[in-house]
Design brief:
The complex is a heterodimer of chains A (258) and B (274). Chain A is an alpha/beta fold. In chain A, 36% of the residues lie in helices and 23% in strands. Chain A has helices spanning 40-48, 90-100, 109-113, 129-142, 159-174, 186-192, 210-217, 222-231, 245-257; strands spanning 2-11, 14-24, 29-33, 55-60, 75-78, 147-151, 178-182, 195-200, 203-209. In chain A, α7 (210-217) packs across α8. Chain B is 83% helix and 0% strand. Chain B is built from ten helices and no strands. The chains are: A alpha/beta (258), B mainly alpha (274). The A-B interface holds A 45, 48-52, 61, 69-75, 77, 79, 81-88, 92, 95-97, 99-104, 123, 139, 143-146, 149, 172, 175-177 and B 1-9, 14, 17-18, 21-22, 24-26, 28-29, 83-86, 88-96, 271, 273-274.
Chain lengths: 258, 274
């Protein structure tokens, strides 16, 4: 569980997050979607502890602030643009991260699963973009995290690696990990996302299960539902009532009963 | 998947691991290898042309005073900007920011200092030019050069942490190098000439301390006893404090130049939004 409560963040005069509330549930994949510049990257940076919210709190299940180094031991991160020291080999990059986290036995089976084991004795600068992305995926899952942040994870992966990636995400979810995903690939959302959090102008405008999104918007497919949210930002939903997944669930249940 | 135990390593151990791996990356960079080789070739050429160790060292120090700030500040900054995404990945690991900063700083500074020392010393060792006069002078040149590397990589860290935009940061680095390396002494001389009827000795002494390259030059030239090459601020400094006093103050001031930018950079790194 991760609780994001009333988070504000501005860069200079530009407000990016405006009172954002969201609860991520263990054993669920929550996809953050929204138009460009909605605040997705800033939200991820705040969750990772890379940026400090101006106001509000982000806490993990045990109540620890994610900015505490020890709290980040539970975290796995796959950035949009993987980047590693160019003159180290892939094995040396992994050895460095392993040395920084000696308390965890790394999941070495991931190297075979993503089919990168044979390429990691070469310097990173000679690796293709796809191989770097696979290495990034291996690192994200390697220390058996209970919280996974995946930022546009399949960009650059070939179809086979993307399929392996998706099955790895599902396996992590099934063992109880809390997973936050951003993607612009609707097909990926349909396969992976249990919950959708729609972010617009720095606040969550919708949060809830995919089925609730379809019901609320009256759309037949997920891409139609997302398009409807983007075209009519509030989508007829009072934003204040839809700040968290829990509040949405209550509202959907009430409407269904009525 | 399960939640993970809390980290078991201390801050120093974490910094050490990062420094070792960062060093391994830096020593394999082509520009670091080219820099060490360039220093060695320059030293060898000067040694052959000058005919004696001390004369070659005097010529070499001018190369050193321009080249080290250039390499450490500009290429150091470029290297740090290039590693930003990996730094963010490391920040998402269970590592205190201060450990990461120390590891990254040592990981850049130590290999650059080693490349500098090797590039300076190698030609003198190969040409067997290390007599009783040259050896201590070379040791001083290497020591001051290593201090300059530490100063300018510290400034590179401070710059890259403070200026988010890479192009702007590199622009500031180039301006800082031009200012401190090429323009500073001339500007001070111009100001001193313009205000020659005023009591400006104290501001001139302060001006000397405000430029690490001037400090390094003064330390070296006091030892090499080549006052003619000392520059305007160095000459004022020497006349105020004498040879021994000047050297002591200059070494202490250079030590502060190592510590202050490093501390400011570390502080900014702790607080910075990535």
């Amino acid at each position: 569980m991760i609780c994001i409560h009333d988070v504000y963040k501005r860069f200079g005069a530009l407000p990016v997050l405006r009172g954002l509330n969201l609860a991520l549930t263990p054993g669920r994949v929550t996809a953050i979607v929204g138009p460009n510049a909605a605040g997705k990257s800033t939200l991820i940076r705040c969750i990772l502890g890379l940026s400090r919210p101006d106001r509000g709190t982000i806490t993990l299940a045990d109540g620890r602030n994610v900015r505490l180094p020890a709290a980040r031991a539970a975290l796995g991160y796959m950035p949009q643009q993987p980047s590693f020291p160019e003159n180290l080999t892939g094995h040396e990059v992994l050895a460095m991260l392993d040395a920084l986290r000696p308390e965890v036995a790394p999941d070495s089976a991931l190297l075979e699963r993503f089919q990168v084991a044979g390429q990691l004795d070469k310097p990173v600068r000679t690796l293709s973009g796809g191989t770097r992305q696979k290495l990034s995926a291996v690192i994200a899952f390697r220390y058996r995290p209970s919280l996974l942040i995946l930022d546009e994870p399949t960009a650059g992966l070939d179809p086979l690696a993307a399929a392996v990636f998706k099955s790895t995400v599902v396996a992590a979810r099934d063992t109880g990990a809390t997973i936050l995903l951003t993607t612009h690939v609707v097909a990926e959302l349909a396969v992976l996302a249990d919950e959708i959090a729609f972010l617009l102008d720095g606040a969550i405008r919708f949060a809830g299960p995919v089925t609730a999104l379809l019901n609320t918007t009256g759309a037949a497919t997920l891409d139609e539902a997302l398009a409807a949210l983007m075209q009519t930002p509030a989508a007829g939903i009072p934003a204040a009532a839809l700040q968290t997944a829990e509040s949405l669930r209550v509202r959907v249940v009430r409407e269904t009963r009525a | 998947m399960t939640a993970i135990a809390t980290p078991s390593l201390g801050r120093a151990e974490l910094a050490w691991i990062i420094a070792v791996h960062q060093s391994r990356d830096v020593v394999r960079k082509r520009w670091v290898i080219a820099y060490a080789a360039g220093l060695a070739v320059a030293g060898d050429l000067l040694l052959r042309l000058a005919g004696s160790g001390p004369s070659a060292l005097v010529s070499l120090l001018n190369v050193v005073l321009l080249l080290i700030p250039l390499i450490a500040l500009i290429l150091g900054s470029a290297s740090l900007y290039g590693a930003r995404e990996f730094t963010e990945l490391l920040l998402a690991q269970p590592i205190p920011r201060r450990s990461l900063f120390i590891g990254l700083y040592l990981g850049l500074t130590v290999p650059l200092a080693a490349a500098t020392a090797l590039g300076l010393a190698l030609p003198f060792m190969i040409e067997r030019a290390l007599d009783q006069t040259t050896a201590p002078m070379l040791a001083l040149l290497v020591a001051v050069s290593v201090l300059l590397v530490a100063v300018f990589t510290g400034l590179a860290f401070l710059l890259t942490v403070s200026v988010h935009d890479r192009a702007r940061g590199l622009g500031v680095a180039i301006l800082a190098w031009l200012g401190m390396g090429l323009l500073y002494d001339g500007l001070v001389l111009a100001v001193a000439t313009a205000f020659r009827d005023w009591p400006i000795e104290r501001p001139l002494l302060a001006a000397m301390v405000l430029n690490p390259i001037d400090l390094a030059r003064t330390i070296l030239l006091l030892r090499l006893d080549v006052a003619a090459l000392m520059g305007y601020t160095g000459a004022v400094f020497r006349s105020a404090f004498g040879t021994t006093g000047s050297a002591t103050i200059a070494i202490l001031a250079l030590g502060l130049w190592v510590m202050v930018p490093w501390w400011l950079g570390a502080r900014a790194f702790d607080r910075r939004d990535f």
